[in-house]
Automatic annotation (TrEMBL):
GO terms for molecular function: homogentisate 1,2-dioxygenase activity; metal ion binding. Its EC number is 1.13.11.5. Belongs to the homogentisate dioxygenase family. Pathway: Amino-acid degradation; L-phenylalanine degradation; acetoacetate and fumarate from L-phenylalanine: step 4/6. The lineage of its organism: Eukaryota, Metazoa, Spiralia, Lophotrochozoa, Mollusca. One of its GO terms (cellular component) is cytoplasm. Fe cation binds at H374, E380, H410. This is Homogentisate 1,2-dioxygenase. Keywords: Dioxygenase, Iron, Metal-binding, Oxidoreductase, Phenylalanine catabolism, Tyrosine catabolism.
Amino acid sequence: MYGKSRSCSNRYIINSIKRLTKFDLAREAYRRSRSFNMSLQKDKLQYMSGFGNEFTSEDPRCPGALPQGQNNPQKCKYGLYAEQLSGSAFTAPRESNVRSWLYRIRPSVKHNPFKPIDNGLFTNDWDKVKPNPNQMRWKPFDITKASQKKVDFVQGMATICGAGDTKGRHGLGIYIYTCNTSMDNKCFYSSDGDLLIVPQQGGILITTEFGKMQVDPNEICVIQQGIRFSVAVSGETRGYMMEVFDGHFTLPNLGPIGANGLANPRDFLTPTACYEDKDCNYTVISKFQGHLFSAKQDHSPFDVVAWHGNYAPYKYNLDNFCTMNTVSFDHVDPSVFTVLTCQSLKPGTAIADFVIFPPRWSVAQNTFRPPYYHRNCMSEFMGLILGKYEAKEEGFSPGGATLHSMMTPHGPDAECFENASSSDLKPQRVADGTMAFMFESSLSMAVTEWGNKTKVDEKYYECWQPLKKHFTIDENDTNGPSIAKKKKAT
Ligand SMILES: O=C(O)Cc1cc(O)ccc1O
Ligand SMILES: [Fe+2]
């Protein structure tokens, strides 16, 4: 039945070359799926638009692979296995209930046992490190050259800071990834949380169980808990990554802004089903309770022929962000630039917000335009994708980072303060050719041992030391301080 069907071309080919050995058949299936996958140039990849939609997707090579009207028929078309991936408790309220059904060549369970592997610089063990309340700044993180040592995405992950606990399902981790080589017959998934990936140098082609996404610098993607993915790169590659243990990212409420603006739902792109039927020695790396484990299996995990559901990875181009801001006076809080948020149980308070500082018009009367001086009951980790950040034109470079921990004072450097205090306030473009971002968390994060000793800019504090005392009392100022007025009266 399957062999006669034009619809599943791998089977068709396999059955039409009957006298070949099992090995030849497997090789032929691999060749066909490989040439299909290679023909998917990054600009030819197809996506479905929308945030949190109920999507359906079938690989065009196997039409009708999705069961109609039910999730797990006694026999799935093309001999596929049905598998549910649950991203919320079965009983979660409808608005937060997420799951997808995958129709795959083999179920994920067909693997050898997981064995612990060396975590390298990747850890969620931040409680052993001594706390450090200082402002932290990191110079751009080094990328190993392929000629020195081949490093893939998983080998190149390093934890810079974090808080909370994977077992208690509460917290976040912030990671830097640097790599020079594609993951080869190897995939990764986190059992602990959702990953938000922010490429900074070099695009990444991510193959997931749901399909492929090309994510270039100035784009971001989210790969949720449990979803397997493999990263291909084409040179020296660097980026930032945040993992949230509590729940999933959502779009922020817009309140009085109205129904549109900030990150609009239709600009989120989810990949379409694209299977590979590949028999090979494959390695699955699992992050489980903050530790890495490896399991071998005899096939590619990217064998999902069709899927449906509302639990699927997505990407977003930061250029699509519709910025809101003041058109009268005062510097508006940076929450107005929130792209995605992972909320805690405390109303309006985030485990993590992903906030960007996009190119925009700045129009403000009688206002100190750059970020204000600040002490925050939240932690602020910042990264720079491109260009410069207006509050610190010098010293904060693309591929570097800053951390302003809970209640740690921060704000514009002395030069920025002096310039912005006297600049002409006509409407102006700000942040053109730049993209800075912030991971803001209500948790108090600890910097890891690696974070404390790698690329740290020990002189960061110096950027505020030239801030001058400008305080003066003008005896003739009738609106001035009461002491001056009292003196005049007597
Ligand atoms: O530069 C920062 O550290 C982030 C930041 C931005 C802003 O617009 C206002 C306050 C703030 O802390
Ligand atoms: Fe701040």
